[in-house]
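ARCHIVE CARD
Drawer: 12
Card no.: 0347
Subject: one protein chain, sequence and derived structure
Cross-reference: see card 0346
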Amino acid sequence: MAWYDCAIFYHMYPLGMVGAERVNDGGIVHHRFGELNAFLPYLKVLGCNAIYIGPVFESGSHGYDTYDYKKIDRRLGSNEDFKKFVTDAHNYGIRVVVDTVFNHTGRGFFAFQDIKEHGPSSRYGSWYKGVRFDQRSPMGDNFSYSAWHGANELPELNFNNEEVRKYLIDVVRYWVKEFDIDGLRLDCADVLDLQFQKSLRYFTNEMKPEFWLMGEVIHGEYARWVNPETLHSVTNYELHKSIYSGFNSHNFFEIAHNINRNINIANDLYTFLENHDVDRIASKLDNKADLKPCYMALFTLPGHPSIYYGGEFGLEGRKNGGDDSPLRPRISEEEMKPNRFTSYIAKLAEIHGKNSELHMGRYKELYLQCRQWAYARMDQNSCVITALNNDDQGAAFYVPLPRPASIAFDLITEDEIPIENGRIMVNLGPHAGQMIKIK
């Protein structure tokens, strides 16, 4: 089993976490990785064994407008600072996956600047899509170009150019050699050249054993990307949406349908309740009492679960128009004061870590109503049953065991549960859940 098969991720958006300047002024280097290093022992206690962090490379503003792929953003620190962060994480047994922006660059990237300076004589004119020297860009350049989603500060790279592909593969090789990172999250993977993604899979496999590739995919058939030739995983936005929607509308059928639709690759997908681009789950839920069962679902349904920083405190946040900053707040070590909810998340992570069936085990639906749901995760030797109640009233119902067993007990309270004729009676309070081990 590879390290990522049993990974619990902690998602860091570092520019927000350390309160970095929103615009890179190109000035002094701010050595702020010490603030992020301080999280490592805490993450170990929380139960996370992998970090997805980024963007971290030099950019002009939010990090997704890369200026230099080989330099850490000066608002965060130096290359040596990041190297120490990865080394320290590894010493804690924590893998590090870096957010990567290859579909487009910022306007400050050297190739784009060369086109601005040299015009049609620039050797980099074919590095970008749609470059034309017979018209001006909306930004006032003496040439036009294709931009990601019409965002003119994000010119799109041309992956039909062999030099571009080779350059980016060499960049990843540099990251592996210089920083010893363990994987990449590919921004905009749903529009990133598919053949390049396949090349990336081939070359990174040679660079480092078990190097993990995960793509940001919002819409589409996930199997197009998740396969032996392309990526190991993609962001499961379908499940993200169905969880908060299913809880809010008292419709567990929506979530169950989503799992069954992607059942062949469900264990490989990156699962989350919130991230740096979407409103916090604590702000999305109509009833805050659903927060605990939502996280229980996250840690027991198929997929690689991820906690977005601050989520373990039940942090709230909504986008303000087009402003994502409310989702990406500064958070200091002093503010990270564990509470009862944090302890609950840590317990879920502990249970996930100790029970192999919750890593890559088979999913089986056992009981499904609009407001009650029970399912099993099974491997060859063991089984965990999760039961959820989404009603304002308590619920009691029988759940058939998916295999013969002589012992059943609650994984949180460790109380034994009687087995009656191959089934167990589940008694749940309002907006509650239970995790049951059977042997």
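Annotation on reverse: The first strand starts at residue 9 and ends at 12. The mean pLDDT is 97.
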